[in-house]
Amino acid sequence: MRKVTLVMLVLMFVIPWTNAFAASTKVDVLKGVAFNALNGSVSGIANITDDNDSTRATWNTNATLEYRFPNPVDLLDGSYITTSAALGTAFVLYDAADKEIYRRSVTAGTFYIPALLNVAKVRIIGEYVGGFGGSAVSSLRLYSFPTNPKDTNLILGKGLVITNSPDFPTGTIANEFTNGKTNDSPVFRAQGTRYNYTFPKPVYFSYVKFYTPVKIGAVLIGPDGGVLASSTTIGGTSPQILSFDLDNVAKVYFFNPNTNAVVSEIEAYGRASEFNPDSSLFVIKGLKYDFVGLNKDFQLSWEPISSPYFEEYRVYQNGNLLKAGKNNYAIITNQQPGEKNTFKVSSVDIYGKEYPAATLTYTVPLPDSTPPSVPKLSGSAGNGIANLEWTPSPEDDLAGYTIYQDGKTTRKVGQGNKAAIDGLTNGKTYRFSVTAFDTSGNESARSNEVELAPKSVITETEQETGPDYLLVKWTKTEGATGYRIYLNGRLIGSVGPTVFEYKITRAMGYIPGAISNKAEARAILADGSEGGSNNPTAPVLELADGYGVGDAFKAGIEFVKLLNGWVLIALAIILANMIIGFLYLLNKKYKITQRG
């Protein structure tokens, strides 16, 4: 243990720290322990450590009260005693060898304690002071700040760089104060000399220990070169400790405020930095709840934290840790009707630091048997699709809606009031209705029934051949939000609902003279689907009855046999467009049947 504050008081006083920089959480190591009365008359001895200022213990001048720690503790520089009614009392500390290392006759006031290591025992001894014998004390408190197990001596074996010295050139390296020897006698210079050490990376600086009885100071520097803290020991004992508990320390230097003196060793304890430059992002925002089921389960959610320093979220229910993880939501289950719970969500960084939590209080609704109001349904049919819309139910506990198709459930939706049912058969009539249900599972009566018959939407199209373009025209299609133009099944372009002609140019793929130039205009419907097209003016190749693809193929082979290769090449070049169109026609587009 590194830092101890001893308080002996009837009324608690808050005393500012003079040269210690405490950041750890203090623990009263005497709380609830039992002092032993070695002699004398003592009354209410348990009241000394009950942490209750309204009770008190009394003893006479012959009394001695003692408590021995299971393990010795350290009193850091900056500890103090405070008492308001302890006349005739001596406060004494002992080391592990039962050697007295500190004594103070306590009267009303505050008394500073020098840094003391390995304090093993506390005694309270009654004294006869100025005709007054005995004493009364409400509480004795001894605060200890436990050492972090990650702390190590950060400068062991490291050279200290000398600056500002009248005796050494700037940059001289001093190794004698950090070599691990606590009983040698190197001289620590004064007169403004600084012994500097710059850490490779900023660190968490816990405390520094000086093996010397003289006054020695330490200054901590941040990454920006600014002073983070400065402190000086009071001298008189060895070793001496200065506590800082500061993060993001880039450099430390030590100085002697008086004259040259022997300093056997300097130990600076700390660990890897726990500095989080994104700490401002670790505030939980947007904490809310949403229902996720019909059995009172709900989901807590909040805005995510994006930072390389983020480790996890923690969710508490009534002060107890419920869940921890990286997801910015948590499903809360097993909630009982009428139950009121307080939920807190906090964030934790990679160093294990937990930041202040956001709070949400939720009361589970009592059982509800009243169904939501009945929606009113309307709809429209598209190409293979039915578009449904209904009036929203106004209830606060609304959970969603159920859509019925031909009397059977087809879909459940959330709190929206629209849905599109696709995959329907054109020309077939379907019956739809909808109900509303709440978080308690109550379902409304069914809405009015709507009959819809999806249908294929056909756009009447015609085409005119020009010298360098194909002009496509079409008639207006009801319900169209635009039109898409195709050439031989390939999308060429699209236009708005008020345009009814389009030129397909050579650059777009039009080949003048080719028999495969079939254009189509297809309507784009409001639901995003696409209608069909009827173009009676597109070229169609009809083969005579009884004459099929096989016959055409055989005739082509015989024709090839009659010609030599050069003629074939010439014909292929001249008739390339026709050959392409013919092959395309055989494969997909025209009325050709295969016999057999």
Task: Walk me through this protein's architecture.
The structure is a single chain. The protein is mainly beta and 596 residues long. The chain folds into six domains: 3-145, Jelly Rolls; 152-272, Jelly Rolls (Sandwich), CATH 2.60.120.260; 279-363, Immunoglobulins (Immunoglobulin-like); 377-452, Sandwich (Immunoglobulin-like), CATH 2.60.40.10; 458-534, Sandwich (Immunoglobulin-like); 549-589, no CATH class. 6% of the residues lie in helices and 45% in strands. The strands form 13 sheets. Strands 16, 17, 18, 20, 21, 22, 23 and 25 form an eight-stranded antiparallel beta sheet that branches. A five-stranded antiparallel beta sheet has the order 3-6-11-8-9, with no helix packed on it. The chain has a four-stranded antiparallel beta sheet with strand order 29-28-31-32, with no helix packed on it. It is elongated, with a radius of gyration of 45 Å. It starts with a strand and ends in a 7-residue tail after the last helix.
Short description:
With 596 residues, the chain is mainly beta. The chain has three helices and 46 strands.
